[in-house]
């Protein structure tokens, strides 16, 4: 079988990865790690390397069968190499891997004796053995001389790099050892991106699309210790080497068998070179490295007529007037097909002129593709637009800094930029996308309805907010009013009839006790939040409400300087309370009998006795 150009990924970062974790690799007891002449490997069988790290056998993917290598020590199936990635086997019946009569490794259908895949090596000897090494390298060697390797999988890497493999050129045969990404998340077929040694001769690796030389990332030149764009390699470069001699030019990283952590270095479907490490604790692969770091740096990662946004979870979105070409591929992480127009553009060419009813849709805050054609004759935006309409292959134009640029056919690599409201194009430019008149009318109609919806929503939201604020104000006023004692509910003789709940709030649920006696306890409170009052709660008031109110009315008439003034009362069921003005100096008996700090003089005691007598006399006389 002919070699397919496979892209090489560079595992330069796995050097330091081994320092992060040291994992125990479970050893799988395998019946064998090799195939000799006369033996066969069928579906359900596998070869396992002696260290238990890798396994080789047949596996199913995307309803097809492949021969490949995977991580045997990892319970989550992770394919690392595929022999027949572009020659899938539809019918697995009678499938087997054997050493054929010409000493090559072949996949055959035993029932039809047809060869599906072969190593296709010109071998002069008939005695060969195939073995899966601890490094993951599957080799075909001379059975009589173990150092005589006739074929090896390391020369035909797919999307995964194995430590100890060479990445670069064989100058004798012209073979280019490079890695190619998978087609999508389930199919191991050849994908869109590759990584290879720079064909221009610079000692660096490039990430490029497979079908065009459009590098979007470079490792930087090798300086003898590391690649200049990857300075982190300098932390541990003992196992890195770059060789350039008469026969070969290659880079090699790692020493076979020295890795203590299970790492996976590969070129992802996304076009990024990634390194994952297996964590036993979480039983999953954990990403620790990616280049380029930004997904939108990858060339055409979203395909034509899309916008890539690094800040969004879904990096790729179709432009206005376009829909996804293949939703099935997008689900499988392959978005390189991009998007298709909803309506073909209207363009008729008559000789050297063309006519069109197409319109332009403006997209702001984008970074533009560098593949534009400059139109020097267009001195204004209208001239630039007309230059695009006059060309049936023109798909968009921009007029920035008094320069006209137009793009032909597929529009690639547009990237969303973050712009401020004060300067909409502070970090990007504006491009005008060519759309059919029908699509523009639909967009304008949608935009009108959107504006109406936004305006209506804004008005409704404003009214709702106003109503909420109004209700909040009313509620706060109600709470405020209910938290103060009303002084306008006059009963008779200026006495206020209080509600029990008002007195309960005023006294903070009767929390500050001033004193007590045979008829009840006295508590401090505040009238209207500021005027101090004394509330006496009668615990032994057995008279009815009519008699209680009559007594309160009688007491309320009393106005004498030596008697405490009654402000109001409360009479709700069994709850009976009297509200007096607060005397800041406290109860008289405290000063006469319980004061330990101040001893009243006899002259003061005499005046107190006269005051009490006058109060008693007033009560008797009135």
TrEMBL record:
Topology of the protein relative to the lipid bilayer: Single-pass type I membrane protein
Ranges where the Apple domain occurs: 347-436
Binding site for ATP: 536
GO molecular function: ATP binding; protein serine/threonine kinase activity
EC number, UniProt record: 2.7.11.1
Domain of life: Eukaryota
InterPro entries in the cross-refs: Bulb-type_lectin_dom (IPR001480), Bulb-type_lectin_dom_sf (IPR036426), Kinase-like_dom_sf (IPR011009), Pan_app (IPR003609), Prot_kinase_dom (IPR000719), Protein_kinase_ATP_BS (IPR017441), S_locus_glycoprot_dom (IPR000858), Ser-Thr/Tyr_kinase_cat_dom (IPR001245)
Subcellular location: Membrane
Signal peptide interval: 1-30
Catalytic activity: L-threonyl-[protein] + ATP = O-phospho-L-threonyl-[protein] + ADP + H(+); L-seryl-[protein] + ATP = O-phospho-L-seryl-[protein] + ADP + H(+)
GO biological process, one term: recognition of pollen
Domain Protein kinase residue range list: 508-622
GO cellular component: membrane
Pfam family, one: PAN_2
This protein's UniProt keywords: ATP-binding, Disulfide bond, Membrane, Nucleotide-binding, Receptor, Signal, Transmembrane, Transmembrane helix
Enzyme category, top tier: transferase
Annotated ranges, domain Bulb-type lectin: 32-153
The protein, known as: non-specific serine/threonine protein kinase
Transmembrane segments: 449-475
SMART domains: B_lectin (SM00108), PAN_AP (SM00473)
Primary localization class, coarse: membrane
Gene3D superfamilies (alphabetical): Bulb-type lectin domain, Phosphorylase Kinase, domain 1, Transferase(Phosphotransferase) domain 1
């Amino acid at each position: 079988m002919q070699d397919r150009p496979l892209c090489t990924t560079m595992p330069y970062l796995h050097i330091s990865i081994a320092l992060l974790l040291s994992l125990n690799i479970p050893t799988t007891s395998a019946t064998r790690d090799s195939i000799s002449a006369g033996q066969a490997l069928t579906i359900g069988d596998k070869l396992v390397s002696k260290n238990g790290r890798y396994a080789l056998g047949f596996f199913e993917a995307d309803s097809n069968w492949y021969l490949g290598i995977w991580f045997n020590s990892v319970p989550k199936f992770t394919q690392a190499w595929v022999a027949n990635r572009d020659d899938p086997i539809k019918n697995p019946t009678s499938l087997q891997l054997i050493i054929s009569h010409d000493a090559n490794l072949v996949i055959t259908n035993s029932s039809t004796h047809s060869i599906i895949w072969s190593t296709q090596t010109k071998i002069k000897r008939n005695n060969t053995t195939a073995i899966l090494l601890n490094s993951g390298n599957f080799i075909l060697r001379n059975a009589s001389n173990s150092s005589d390797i006739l074929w090896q999988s390391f020369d035909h890497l797919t999307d995964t790099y194995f430590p100890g493999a060479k990445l670069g050129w064989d100058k004798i045969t012209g073979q280019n050892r490079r890695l190619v990404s998978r087609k999508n998340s389930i199919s191991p077929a050849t994908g869109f991106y590759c990584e290879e040694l720079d064909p221009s001769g610079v000692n660096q690796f490039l990430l490029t699309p497979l079908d065009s030389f459009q590098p979007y990332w470079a490792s930087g030149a090798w300086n003898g210790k590391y690649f200049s764009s990857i300075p982190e390699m300098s932390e541990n470069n003992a196992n890195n080497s770059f060789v350039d001699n008469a026969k070969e030019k290659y880079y090699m990283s790692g020493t076979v068998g020295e890795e203590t952590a299970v790492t996976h270095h590969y070129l992802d479907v996304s076009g990024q070179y990634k390194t994952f490490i297996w964590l036993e604790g979480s039983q999953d692969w954990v990403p620790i490295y990616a280049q380029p770091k930004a997904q939108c740096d990858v060339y055409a990662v979203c395909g034509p007529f899309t916008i890539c946004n690094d800040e969004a979870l879904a990096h790729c979105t179709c432009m206005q007037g376009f829909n996804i070409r293949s939703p099935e591929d997008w689900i499988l992480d392959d978005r390189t097909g991009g998007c298709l127009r909803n309506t073909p553009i209207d363009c008729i060419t008559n000789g050297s002129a063309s006519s069109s009813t197409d319109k332009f849709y403006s997209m702001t805050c984008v970074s533009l593709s560098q593949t534009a054609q400059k139109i020097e004759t267009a001195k204004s935006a209208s001239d630039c637009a007309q230059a695009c309409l006059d060309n049936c292959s023109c798909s968009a134009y921009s007029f920035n800094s008094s320069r006209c640029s137009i793009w032909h056919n597929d529009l690639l690599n547009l990237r969303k930029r973050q712009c401020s409201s004060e300067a909409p194009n502070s970090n990007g430019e504006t491009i005008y996308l060519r759309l059919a008149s029908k699509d523009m009318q639909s967009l304008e109609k949608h935009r009108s309805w959107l504006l109406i919806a936004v305006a209506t929503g804004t008005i409704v939201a404003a009214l709702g907010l106003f109503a909420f604020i109004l209700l909040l104000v009313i509620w706060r006023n109600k709470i405020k009013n209910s938290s103060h004692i009303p002084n306008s509910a006059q009963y008779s003789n200026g006495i206020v009839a209080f509600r029990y709940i008002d007195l309960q709030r005023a006294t903070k649920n009767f929390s500050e006790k001033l004193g007590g006696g045979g008829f009840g306890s006295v508590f401090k409170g505040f009238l209207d939040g500021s005027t101090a009052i004394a509330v006496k709660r009668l615990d032994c008031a057995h008279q009815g409400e009519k008699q209680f109110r009559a007594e309160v009315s009688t007491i309320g008439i009393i106005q004498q300087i030596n008697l405490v003034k009654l402000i109001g009362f409360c009479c709700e069921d069994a709850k009976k309370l009297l509200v007096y003005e607060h005397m800041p100096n406290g109860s008289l008996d405290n000063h006469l009998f319980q004061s330990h700090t101040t001893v009243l003089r006899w002259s003061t005691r005499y005046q107190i006795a006269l005051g009490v007598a006058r109060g008693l006399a007033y009560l008797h006389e009135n």
